Each structure stands twice: as structure tokens, then as C-alpha cells.
Amino acid sequence: GTKHKGNIGSLIKDKLNDICDDYEIAAFQGRETFEELTISTVHDKTRANIKIQDGCSQFCSYCIIPYVRGPIRSRNHNDIIQEVKKIAENGYKEIVLNEIHISSYGKDLQLKDSLIKLIEDIDSIEGIERIRLGSLEPNLINEEFMKRYAALDKTCDHFHLSLQSGSDNVLKRMNRKYSTEEYRNNVKLIRKYMPEAGITTDIIVGFPGESDEEFNETLEFVKDIQFSRIHVFKYSIREGTKAAEMENQVDDSIKTKRSKELIDLADSISNEFMNKFMDRDLSVLIETEKDDTIYEGYTTNYLKVLLKSDINVKNEIINVHIDKIRNDYLLSE
Ligand code: SF4
């Protein structure tokens, strides 16, 4: 697995000098503490991904991660705050709290409300202007969480709520821990507090045993929720998982057909969502200079924007008037 990744430099050096063993095997489920690693990933010096935990204890039937990355280990609250302060001093405006299962943040330390408390403390750090969350388990969302999250100044109205299937039977076979009804109610809660929130998700098509009827339930659910963007994946076998041993593996040609159908639907729904923002002024963090006068950035609800500007606006948060939609971009000309 990835244990001792923080020591990778010295391990390589010792190996080159022939003063360490060839390998070390540790019991992966025995890990209890987060291995501190101060390097977070960054995007064009505007957005930084902050790692807040490692591992996962959910054991979805198709996923190998709990076996190779071990159980949930949360990073120390104060260490995260110190890293975010440094990132702010270096001029980054947006941070994304990220990793494998951030919804479990603090559970291993028996801390209550730990994720929202962390977000509240980050919200008061000078220099940080946007806080975004990585992929979330739908069950994280509740009235109390949304009330506190929406009351903050810097939190983005974007939620990546991992769905995987819109069929309750498939969700059970996947060993996911929510029903479509719970998912729907949580989306309603988000929109009660943040009406224009972008809800993005991941969906797997062709999970073992997925019937036409179950796939159609997913299509209907997707229409009902009105996602702003969907990432569609064709199920693929991960050796060592329960799903790899399931009967009724779906033929690849059916997976391809379902994937195309769902992507087409997702594109049209995403377009409907983007249309709501035509002729509006939106706050955009400019992340990339595409060429001399064209810049790319994101809105708070994670829509991609392209705009023309004669002056360098990179790493600025500016109000942009939206004139057009092209492919998956809002345009300002
Ligand atoms: S899919 Fe996500 S929640 Fe499920 S076991 Fe894998 S990492 Fe954990």
C-alpha cells in the first residue's frame, strides 16, 4: 500500500546505498494514525487540494481501496489549519478539502461535527476566499450541516455527491449505505439552503446483474435530480472484491450502450442547468491563461467559464457577464 509514503525520499536513498531491506510488509488494517505528508496538490497556483484523511472503511462491493489503503485515518485539525494558512500566504484563493472519504473525517477520533468545525475554522483564515469539498457520501448532508455550511462566507455551492446507481437494488448489491430516497431528500436539503448549487456525481453502468429495468431507474433518477455534471463509468472488475465474484456480469456491448445513453442524457441536463445562468453576472475565479486574451475559470457552483480579457486576470475573482454557452463552457465575449 502507501504506508511510509512520506519517507519515500530517504527509503530510495537508503536502498541506493544498500542500507535498507528490499521491502516491508505491514498489516494494512492495523493503521490507526494519519501519516503526515505536507505536500498537497495545487492547480495553477490558484486552487490547492488539501488532504484531510486517508483510507476508507466503507467496503463498497466493487472497490479495492479499503484493502490497499486501510481504514479511515483523519489528519489532525491543527495540522490542516497550519497548512491552509501557509497556502493562503502563498496567494492561493481556493482550497478543496479532499481525499478518499472525507465524509468520514473525524469518525476514527470519535469527534463530533469534525468536518463542519474544520470548514468553519478555515473560513476565518485570511486570504482564502473559497472553500470547496471533494467527493461526499450523500449521508453527510443533514439540516444542521447545511445550516452551518451555508451560513459561512467562503463555502462554495457545489457538492459532488457520489451516487453510483439510481436503482435501490443495485445500491444494495454495491453495499452503498443510502437509498435513492435518502439521496433525493439530501439534494432537497442542499437546494433549500443553496438554491443554485451545482450537484455533480459519479455513476457506474453495467454493475453485475444490472437489468434493463434497473438501468432505466437510474435514467429516471438522473432526470429527477437534475445534476449539473455526471461522470459515467463502465463497471470494470477489480480482482479481490466481492463484485468480481458476482454472477451475471454484464456484457461489454451492453455497458457501452448504457454508457452512451446516460452520457447523452447527462449532457442535455447539464446544458439545461447552464442555461439558467445566461445573461447573468457570475463570480469566477480565473485559474488558467489559455492564450494571450483568453482565460478559463470556475464559478462557485463549478461551471467552467471562458472569457476574453486584455489585462491579465489570472488568480483574480471577478464578476463575469455570461453571453453564450458552447459545449460545456459558459462564455463571456
Ligand atoms: S467506493 Fe469510495 S466509499 Fe466505497 S469503498 Fe471505495 S473509497 Fe470507500
So, the CATH homologous superfamily of the largest domain?
A: tm_1862 like domain
The residue-averaged pLDDT reads 91
Q: Roughly how many Å apart are the termini?
A: 48 Å
Q: How many β-strand stretches? A: 15
CATH 2nd-level architecture of the largest domain: Alpha-Beta Horseshoe
Count of discrete domains = 2
Query: Would you state the CATH class of the largest domain?
Result: Alpha Beta
How are the strands of the biggest sheet laid out side by side?
Answer: 13-10-11-12-15-14
Rg of Cα set: 21 Å
What fold name goes in the CATH topology slot of the largest domain? Answer: pyruvate-formate lyase- activating enzyme
Tell me the overall shape.
globular
Topology:
Elements: H1 8-16, E1 41-43, E2 47-51, E3 53-54, H2 65-69, E4 73-74, H3 77-89, E5 94-98, H4 114-123, E6 130-133, H5 143-150, E7 158-160, H6 168-173, H7 180-193, E8 198-205, H8 212-225, E9 229-234, H9 252-275, E10 281-289, E11 294-299, E12 304-308, E13 317-321, E14 324-326, E15 329-332
Parallel strand pairs: 2-5, 5-6, 7-8, 8-9, 12-15
Antiparallel strand pairs: 1-2, 3-4, 10-11, 10-13, 11-12, 14-15
Helix pairs in contact: 3-4, 8-9
The protein binds iron/sulfur cluster (SF4).
